[in-house]
Structure formats: structure tokens, C-alpha cells
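Good morning,

Attaching, inline, the C-alpha cells for the sequence recovery test we're adding to the shared suite. The designed sequence is right after.
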């Protein structure tokens, strides 16, 4: 039987809209309607991932698509964004997914966003420090933050790209230059250090890691990663041997993964997990939930340094409160001095990259 011509035309029209040419990712009116229906009117936040096609970006995009607090998910990268977007967009969860490829689409990717997560940049190979990534990643973070200042200056920024100890000061300087800097809205992601610390401490204590809470302060590289084992919850005591083992393993967790991957990159899956845990905390804060507390590398007056990682309370405007360090034992006080010395140089390096 011949199909009714009228219906055929409609199918052809819809099909052209639903299957746009490969790299044309603009939204057609049909897709827009479909997107609105997919949302079901559910309230939620608009989240962009910059570097969404990378080792961290892909699983991070997948996990954010599963987050019920997200209504719109923008995936931006300089390569492969269309493929990742097509793939993730077929997941039958609430968030509407849109892809953006290349710098000419950066502004569209950022406009209207509540939260921007940045895992863009090169990862380490064995034998490298995080600081060795500065040369390439500093410029990437600068460009992306200029876009944020222009298109979504009120967005919360979760900065993952290494070296975090320098990229956060870079972001702050870019925002200051643009006149949009709000220290409450810029957070360096150190959640993976906490995730690792919880895991390794739980192993030693014979507990479920979900029941363990280890504050990790300072920064995100080597000796700047300072686990406060004296403040572990539930309250626990450790032998000196256990303290040495745990501190060393937490400080070198990133290197452990870099070496195991043997040239194929650094932590991606555990990082995506940690990034989603942290982003979810930021979104719950934005929603107005009470008592949302996580560690992050932020603008701080806890020490004499302008940036430092401690526990922070997250709220409707980003950071509501930066917590002090609490009582430290002698071992931790020595660790703190070492951490501050290295951090000071890394922060200065980031600031001078922008100020010149
Ligand atoms: N804060 C933390 O705890 C952690 C940070 N990292 C850091 O995260 C970063 C990303 O790591 P991976 O995902 O493993 O690397 P990757 O190389 O797999 O992915 C990076 C992605 O960034 C994209 N990219 C490069 N330049 C860009 C630009 N100008 N704009 C947008 N996207 C751009 C690349 O195309 C790529 O898709 C690295 O700097 C790594 O050191 C990694 C693990 C933990
Ligand atoms: O070690 C790296 O280069 C990646 C990273 O920051 C981590 O895994 O903590």
C-alpha cells in the first residue's frame, strides 16, 4: 500500500531535523520541542563540561547525564564532541544534552550555564610532575575562563585541569581582569584526594569507605596534599607506620595511577567519579540544601596564602563558609609548613602567567 504522501513528507522533514549533518550541532525547532518534552518541565541546573571528549570528560558527561539535578548538559571540546554528544544523548534520563565543537562554539556552550566543570588539558605521563603540564594547560584554562567571564560570569566553576595549584590562581586573575571575579564561585577540585584518602584509610581500619571521612587540605600535588589523619571520622588512632604509609599513598595516588597506565594518561574514571560527587555537592548547595560540606582549593584566609584547600560549606552563591584547619598534631604541622612552601611558588606562577 502506498503511504499517504502527507505523512511521508512529515517523516522526511522530521528525519532531516533529527539527523543533522555530522558537525552541525545547532538545535532545530523539532529538536527544541523534543528537548522540552524530554525535560518534562522538571526544574534543574544547566551544566557545561569543557574537555568533555577526554578521558575524564566522557565518563563525567555520562555520570552528569544521570544526575537528576541537571536539566541541561552542554558538552564542549575541540575534538570529538559530536560523537560523545550523540552517544550520551540517547540515555533515557532527564537532562537534555547538546554538543559544541571548537572555539567558535565556546560562547554558545557557556551561555546561561549555572555550573561549568573544566577537565580540559593534557594529562601526565610517567616521570612528569603536574607542574610539567603548566606550559600547555595554563593557556587552555586562560582561554576557557575568558569565555566564562564573557558568557556566564555568575556560574560556579569547578576546575580540574592540572596543575590545580596554579590553574585556580590563573582563573582568578582572568576573572579579575574581566571584572567578574567572585571568589565564592571558583573551586579547584581536590575531591579525588579525599576519595582516595577515604578508600585507603578504610582499608587500614577495616571499614566500609562510605563510612569514613578524611579531611585533605593544602593543594593538589605531592607534599601539598595534606591528609589530616588526626581528624578522621569515625575517630581513629593510627600507628606511626600507618600514618607514614597512608600519607605517602594519598600524596602519591595520582602517580600510582600514572605509572600503572604506563603512558596512557592519568586517573580518569576515579576522577570522573570524584568530579561528579563534587559537582553534585555544588548543585545541592545551589538548590539551598543545608550542611553541604566538601574539601576544595579556594580563595582562603585560613593561612597566609591566597589559596588553600580546606573544607568549605556550599550554598546558593557557591562557597558560604571556608572552614579553618582545626587542631593539628606535630606531624601535620610539619607537613603544613612543607605544603605551604611549595604552594606559594605554584600560586605565584599562576598569578604571574596572567599579570606578566
Ligand atoms: N584535579 C584532579 O584531581 C585531577 C586532574 N586531572 C587533570 O585533568 C586534565 C584532563 O585529563 P584527561 O581527561 O585524562 O586528559 P585527556 O587528554 O584524556 O582529555 C583532555 C580533553 O581536553 C580537550 N582539550 C584540549 N584543549 C582544549 C581546549 N582548549 N578546550 C576544550 N577542550 C580541550 C582534549 O581535546 C581532550 O578531549 C589533565 O590536566 C589532568 O592532569 C586528572 C586527574 C585528576
Ligand atoms: O596525577 C595526575 O597527574 C592526575 C591527578 O591529578 C590525580 O590523579 O590526582
Amino acid at each position: 500500500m502506498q503511504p499517504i504522501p502527507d505523512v511521508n513528507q512529515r517523516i522526511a522533514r522530521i528525519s532531516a531535523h533529527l539527523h543533522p549533518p555530522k558537525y552541525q550541532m545547532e538545535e532545530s525547532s523539532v529538536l527544541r520541542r523534543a528537548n522540552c518534552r524530554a525535560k518534562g518541565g522538571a526544574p534543574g541546573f544547566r551544566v557545561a563540561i569543557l574537555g568533555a571528549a577526554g578521558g575524564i570528560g566522557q565518563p563525567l558527561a555520562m555520570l552528569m547525564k544521570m544526575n537528576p539535578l541537571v536539566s541541561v548538559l552542554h558538552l564542549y571540546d575541540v575534538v570529538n564532541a559530536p560523537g560523545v554528544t550523540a552517544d550520551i544523548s540517547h540515555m533515557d534520563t532527564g537532562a537534555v544534552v547538546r554538543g559544541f565543537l571548537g572555539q567558535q562554539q565556546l560562547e554558545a556552550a557557556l551561555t546561561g550555564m549555572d555550573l561549568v566543570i573544566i577537565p580540559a588539558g593534557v594529562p601526565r605521563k610517567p616521570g612528569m610532575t603536574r607542574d610539567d603540564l603548566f606550559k600547555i594547560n595554563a593557556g587552555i584554562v586562560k582561554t576557557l575562563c575568558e569565555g566564562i567571564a564573557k558568557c556566564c560570569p555568575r556560574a560556579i566553576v569547578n576546575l580540574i585541569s592540572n596543575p590545580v595549584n596554579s590553574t585556580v590562581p590563573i582563573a582568578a586573575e582572568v576573572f579579575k581582569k574581566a571584572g567578574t571575579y567572585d571568589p565564592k564561585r571558583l573551586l579547584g577540585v581536590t575531591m579525588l584526594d579525599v576519595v582516595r584518602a577515604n578508600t585507603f584509610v578504610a582499608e587500614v581500619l577495616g571499614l566500609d569507605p562510605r563510612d569514613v571521612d578524611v579531611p585533605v587540605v593544602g593543594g593538589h600535588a605531592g607534599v601539598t596534599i595534606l591528609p589530616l589523619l588526626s581528624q578522621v571520622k569515625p575517630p581513629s588512632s593510627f600507628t606511626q607506620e600507618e600514618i607514614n604509609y597512608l600519607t605517602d599513598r594519598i600524596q602519591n595516588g595520582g602517580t600510582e595511577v600514572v605509572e600503572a597506565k604506563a603512558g596512557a594518561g592519568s586517573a580518569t574514571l576515579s576522577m570522573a567519579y570524584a568530579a561528579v560527587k563534587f559537582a553534585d555537592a555544588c548543585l545541592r548547595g545551589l538548590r539551598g540544601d543545608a550542611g553541604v560540606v566538601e574539601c576544595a582549593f579556594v580563595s582562603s584566609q585560613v593561612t597566609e596564602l591566597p589559596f588553600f584547600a580546606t573544607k568549605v560549606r556550599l550554598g546558593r552563591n557557591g562557597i558560604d563558609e571556608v572552614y579553618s584547619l582545626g587542631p593539628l598534631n606535630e606531624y601535620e604541622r610539619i607537613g603544613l609548613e612543607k605544603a605551604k612552601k611549595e604552594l606559594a611558588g605554584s600560586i605565584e606562577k599562576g598569578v604571574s602567567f596572567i599579570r606578566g
